[in-house]
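Most newcomers find our protein records easier to grasp once they have seen one. Each record describes a single protein and holds just a pair of labelled lines. A learned vocabulary of local backbone shapes supplies the integers on the structure line. Nothing more is needed to start thinking about how sequence determines fold. The record below serves as our worked example for the rest of this section.
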Amino acid sequence: MAGFYSSPLVDAAPQVDAAPPVDAAPPDASAAPLDAALTAPAISGSPRVDAAVVTRLTGAPPRSHSSSAPYVATVCIDEAGAVTSVDVHAAPERLKPRIARALGRWRYQPYRDGSGPRPVCFDVLDRLRRAAP
């Protein structure tokens, strides 16, 4: 069962920047709200592709002090590889906004087909990483 939540996208991706654990501290009232664009519906007309054909360039997997729970999210990127929306389908309810925020900071190599770079959506299936105490 553990292999189900493992993904070549996440396992083989470089650890370029360290994101704080998703449950490290309660949200700060003065912090910027979750970007509405990251929780908006997927780009209209963007095809869904397998995550294995999309290469993550930067971004650390979400971490948690209290959970190593699995999560499933749909991530959409634009022609430049920037994340345009994140929809967390399955995760502990209290951690969904923070997982979306962490995945929204990732950057991808632009997806290309025969016509050039294209916006696409794909599913990310993984587990929260345990943060060091």
